[in-house]
Amino acid sequence: MKRTLIALLLIIGACVAGLAxxxxxxxxxxARDVIARASGRGELVAVVxxxxxxxxxxxxxxxxxxxxxxxxxRRESSGEPVxxxxxxxxxxxxxxxxxxxxxxxxxxxxxxxxxxxxxATITEHLRAQQWIEKQIAPELHVTDQECSTLYxxxxxxxxxxxxxxxxxxxxxxxxxxxxxxxxxxxxxARALAKRLTKGEDFALLIAEASEDxxxxxxxxxxxxxxxxxxxxxxxxxxxxxxxxxxxxxxRLQHGFHILQLTEGRPARQMPFEEVxxxxxxxxxxxxxxxxxxxxxxxxxxxxxxxxxL
Length: 309
Prior knowledge:
309 residues, four-stranded antiparallel sheet, 14% strand, flat
């Protein structure tokens, strides 16, 4: 009985030793390189967190450093939670870029991706984004003093020019429009202006007849703008208007307009309290690039071995 037990222990010991040797052999970079060459994966170029990167893993335009960063980023961000609603929104945004669903499905199939694999890839991307934001957040902190210093040194940035708010009724007649069509649009604009003089509601006329699809459903409102944002001939006509009273039809570059000045705001220097949040965002965005670059260097150097082959 004793001899049998001793023999069994020797066999188990030999097996364990064999497995240990095999594990050591596999983790040895030179051995991995031999195995990879034999299996067609090419030369072993790096080991990241115990996983090998081979020549066949490199796509056009990629280098080893990029793959090392990606591997470490996947490991570090793997525990980040991803909200199902957020994931679904990202999938829908991607799907929307391809138009009809059948086009998206065809592109997915052509890429060799399943819907499940796509969701997994997007999940991995969202985790990486969240992890990166958490890592660089301390470096993006902006103090009140930083904001104040920029405000004092860049006063011209916060000088707000005269601004106008205008509504318009628009009939398209660009320069290439045939003369008879231009005349028809001009007659239509005059007829609409006449209806306004008889007391018809400007917003209702805009909804009925304006050819500016982007503004007709909101009463032709163009919002606030300064002279720098609009063509000079348009601003010249706006400056002639009395607030609240539609002007006469005027033909500009793209067609006929009936304009109404709804509000004007004089030039002013915006106070610090009004723009501090925007200044802080501007400064934080300026810190973001260097912070991400430093994080990339950390990921490129973390826990990997470049094999001395």
